[in-house]
Amino acid sequence: MTPHVVEPDPQAGAAVKAADRAHVFHSWSAQGLIDPLAVAGAEGSYFWDYDGNRYLDFSSGLVYTNIGYQHPRVVAAVQEQAGKLVTFAPSFAVDVRSEAARLIAGRTPGDLDKIFFTNGGAEAVENAVRMARLHTGRTKVLSAYRSYHGATNTAINLTGDPRRWPSDTASAGVVHFWAPFLYRSPFYATTEAEESARALQHLEDTIAFEGPATIAAIILETVPGTAGIMTPPPGYLAGVREICDRYGIVFILDEVMAGFGRTGKWFAAEHFDVVPDLLTFAKGVNSGYVPLGGVAINGEIAATFDKRAYPGGLTYSGHPLACAAAVATLQVMEDEKVVEHAAHIGENVLGPGLRELAERHPSVGDVRGLGVFWALDLVRNRETREPLVPYNAAGEANAPMAAFAAAAKKNGLWPLVAMNRTHAVPPCNVSEAEAKEGLAALDAALSVADEHTA
User: Fold this and answer.
1) 347 secondary structure, DSSP code
2) Hey, which of 89, 227, 272, 435 would disulfide with 237, CB 3.0 to 4.6 Å?
């Protein structure tokens, strides 16, 4: 793709920003304390502002532009669908909706062959939990600390990070537990085998004390995303699967962020040879071009609703434009071998490059990831593993991470920063040259983080 020539237009940018500040209410923000960048355009792995600054997007939007911005085949598919049938109610059979469901079911593991469409990931989680509760007749759901499942009512209560706190009712039927994370092990483990075994025992103990017959589901991000990209140790997810089978608990894997090539597999579950009962997806299913998410449902749970109405639905479920974008995206990923490319970039460029940065920068305490799904855990002291900023830091306490982010942007890299981490999550089809460009920009920005180490 030929690089877009950025033509500065500061006056237009000022008008966009003024309208935004006058009328747009932004998520997760104190409205008077933010200064959103006015974006003029995007293409491939890059976007640019009205002042002529061009950024390599190492955040993939919000980790969803898996095939980059403005892929011509997907844009054309949306345009074609708009001319054919721009919208239709979800209770009808529509060709592009059926084809999107068929293609998704063809990629999900096991017998997850029925697809319930939503508008995004949080709604997918809401409906997966509802299905599990109705299928089992139980109410409790177990989810992990260090997780994020969305901002709707059930999803935010399932979430295991501070975004939950202002909305936590303590009455949503959610119980949190510790999932494995060897670098900051809550189980005093020293090996992956110890971490896996102790985390599974902790989950067993939690279930025993909560009452197995009260638990409808366990939900886990296959590889947690914004909570830190903590790849589970060998045997852990298989162990959770066995526990769920033993107690009749529905196993839900949240692949909203990790799915559709992000980890170098179509779904991250393939790395661990595990099949859930329900799988939630969104984001990369159509690279975020038109909002779409869903739940992939196994045969047993789907059969629960053969003669019993499922009490849930959405006006725009399986919207034709969103489904057209999904069909085109999945075809592009197949034809251009995007999943295989993501695995290659992770194994041969990002993984080695990030580990090399860790050798040079004392602020890098840990490097972890798969495919194009990586995190650098930034620390003040490698020996003590003290985070570069405190947990859930804000304001002056977060100054070191703010300085790092500013340095990255100054060097033409748009980072994804979460607490004391920076995530390297470019599009799945990022080129080797682009990935190396990002690594060079990170190298420079980490020198700023190094200034805050002890």
Assistant:
1) I
2) 272
